[in-house]
Amino acid sequence: MKPTNLTILVLYYSRHGATRKLAELVAQGIESVPGAEARLRTVPAVSTVAEATAPDIPAAGAPYVELADLHECAGLALGSPTRFGNMAASVKYFLDGTAADWVNGTLAGKPAAVFTSTGSLHGGQESTLLSMMLPLLHHGMLLLGLPYSHPELMNTASGGSPYGASHWAGADGKKALTEEERVLALALGKRLATAAVKLQGMK
Question: What is the pLDDT of residues 145-154, one digit of tens each?
């Protein structure tokens, strides 16, 4: 019987597509690890209109996340664009609804990593990555970053951080990913999946 691959959830919010591109690279890195597969999911936008509802299926990109995705994943990569040096409200809104999973320890002991994109080079990439880590720590997750054994961290003139993958998307969100950003996003996914496979092997 063929062993079942571990599912690594890549959960993100993307307004103009830059964070989505990072998510897809992280997913590629996950898929490069034998025994692991990526599950791409997104969250609906938060509306200022109280009566507004999102369609069941997004017009483009990954399906919306469900709480079942948290139960079924062996690891989590969480991504958001920067909003004033913090995660986007859509990501925070979803996380705020996971109290039952926090109480039950759904994510406890699972590895996690974070990624982000910004409109400006110094627009709060690292503080956004750190803001996403806080609820994951409360969930008892094992946080992974990027070690300086990746030379791209020393050479990048755009995104890339020891706290996670990042991308300088430009004010219009259309700036292409640099080679360093691509390599680091792939490496983050691979590192996350490798950790998940090893942790499952220890059980």
Answer: 999 999 999 9
